[in-house]
Write a structure and sequence with these properties.
- The chain is built from five helices and no strands.
Length: about 90
């Protein structure tokens, strides 16, 4: 496989992951799996939660700040307590 094809495949995978976000269907497993996937773990939590427009950017940034995260925190940096808090926030 050539490098250009690999890059395109990774980009498609990341785009699909971002577009698949749904507050009604999010689970802890989604975030844990993504945080362990080398192609997804560098996605910013704020971008993941707000990319579909279903979650407000300002409210999400304030929420992340309340659990000691910021807009630049990546999925790989999350711990289980923060993941649970994110799931609870999204499902409200």
């Amino acid at each position: 496989m050539n490098l250009h094809k690999e890059i395109q495949d990774i980009k498609l995978k990341r785009d699909h992951f971002l577009k698949s976000f749904s507050p009604n269907e999010i689970s802890t497993n989604d975030i844990v799996t993504a945080s362990k996937d080398i192609n997804l773990q560098s996605i910013r939590v704020h971008k993941y939660l707000t990319s579909t427009g279903e979650m407000g950017k300002v409210a999400t940034a304030k929420f992340l700040d309340s659990i000691d995260l910021n807009e630049n925190t990546k999925l790989i940096e999350l711990n289980n307590i923060q993941i649970d808090a994110i799931i609870e926030y999204v499902k409200k």
